[in-house]
Amino acid sequence: MEVDTSMLTESDRDPAADNHHGVSEDPSPREASEEVHGQPVLSGPRPAPTYRVVNAIIEKKEDGPGCRCGHTLTAVPAVGEEGTPSFIGPRLILFGGATALEGNSATPPSSPTGNAGIRLAGATADVHCYDVLSNKWTRLTPLGEPPSPRAAHVATAVGTMVVIQGGIGPTGLSAEDLHVLDLTQTKPRWHRVVVQGPGPGPRYGHVMALVGQRFLLTIGGNDGKQPLADVWALDTAAKPYEWRKLEPEGDGPPPCMYATASARSDGLLLLCGGRDASSVPLSSAYGLAKHRDGRWEWAIAPGISPSPRYQHAAVFVNARLQVSGGALGGGRMVDDSSSIAVLDTAAGVWCDTKSVVTSPRTGKYSADAAGGDAAVELARRCRHAAAAVGDFIFIYGGLRGGRN
After folding, report:
1. Using CA atoms, how far apart are residues 206 and 152, in angstroms rounded to an integer?
2. E strand or H helix at 288, and its extent?
3. Cα separations (Å) of 224 from 96, 167, 172, 403?
């Protein structure tokens, strides 16, 4: 079904994410937010933020997302004028994910076909909404035909709509269809977007972001056979919708999956980390920008990343890419000193919780280790989701040592 409403965003905003409780290392889901308000804004590179648990309100058990991994968390801007009856505040939309994991490791076992991939049991198509202003979770039951149950999919906000694509579910790879959850009205509704011509095809572990508040970009992932490095763009301001395969100039990332992609407000996309075809975690970050003449170009981001990682989360707050968690493979999480990191794109440096990073950290942290700083402990996880609302970052769910 084609969406009649334009998919073009109407305002410049940062993405946001939500949580049921707080981001912690124990099996229960937690929600954490970055401590920014009430502190003076410092000039120059600043250390990565700290996180705290936020206990959200859940009136009925089914309203809370519960334990899950491989889900998405997407920030949707407010609707209407504040103070009027029609006003709806900023929300975080959690979709899908798996409520159980086959195997007991941060690195998933092979797929039934023998290819490296995920085998997540209990994949869902649930939709949960976190109201940022009221600190309350609600289970949504949108009208229309929902997407199939899935995990390791992608989602991004286009105005007051959440676009979902790809992933993998109980029956294998999800179709490449674009599904849109329209949150403009009081009652949410699912739509299936009609897109002409060939597209990215079914895949999971890929990334998607809205660039320049116009171009929906999908990059990389795994098609069930191998990691990919292709880049596809859909112009949300042009109908009929169609995917276009891009051939960016410059040195781009290798074929990889489980990376993150975040768009800065000025239109720069930053792809960070991931896992390559040899299952090696990556540390580099790459910027992708569109020139005025229509050319797209990759460039390696400056600075020294504190650690390679995949299955992490990353969101922009102003010019700072806030990175949390991630896996190293072999059941190991990212080292404690690097589990929270920031790429300051204005200064061109990476920072951890203590200082500017001048050399890579050595990953020594075991997923089952105990102790350490409580704020850092909250971010030691993988397959979680994060989003930002204003100056606050929210993290939800994920795995710690093979547990939800």
Report:
1. 8
2. strand 285-290
3. 20, 11, 9, 24
**Angle ∠(268,360,325) on CA atoms, nearest 5:** 65
Q: Exposed (0-12), middle (13-18) or buried (19+): which is 112, by Cβ within 10 Å?
A: exposed
Distance of CA 85 to the CA centre of its chain: 32
Q: Where are the domains of the chain?
A: 31-196+304-396
Residue 42 in this model has a pLDDT that exceeds 80: no
Contact between residue 387 and residue 76 where contact means Cβ atoms under 8 Å apart: no
The closest alpha carbon to 365, from 322, 314, 331, belongs to 331
CA nearest to 383, candidates 282, 257, 220, 254: 257
Helix (H) or strand (E) holding 260: strand 260-263
Alpha carbons 236 and 183: distance in angstroms, whole number = 17
Alpha-carbon gap, residue 147 to 305, rounded angstroms: 36
Burial 17-34, CB ≥16 within 10 A → b, else e: bbbbbbbbbeeebbbbbb
Residue 400, Ramachandran bin (φ over 0: left; ψ between -120 and 50: alpha; else beta): beta
| pLDDT tens, position by position, 288-337 | 999 999 999 999 999 999 999 999 999 999 999 999 999 999 889 998 77
Dist CA 8 CA 14 (whole Å): 15
- Give the count of alpha carbons within 13 A of 156, CB side only: 29
For the four alpha carbons of 400, 126, 123 and 161, in that order, the dihedral sign comes to: negative
d(Cα 3, Cα 243) in Å, to the nearest integer? 16
Instruction: Find the DSSP H helices in 32-171.
Output: none
Whether pLDDT at 111 is above 70? no
Burial of 65 (0-12, 13-18, 19+ CB in 10 A): buried
Q: Which residues of 230-268 are buried (b: 16+ CB within 10 A; e: fewer)?
A: bbbbbebeeeebebeebebeeebbbebbbbbbbbbeeeb
pTM of the model: 0.84
Query: CB of 376 within 8 A of CB of 340?
Result: yes
Q: What does the alpha-carbon distance between residue 172 and residue 161 come to, in Å, rounded to a whole number? A: 26
- Count of CB atoms situated within 10 Å of the CB of 398: 33
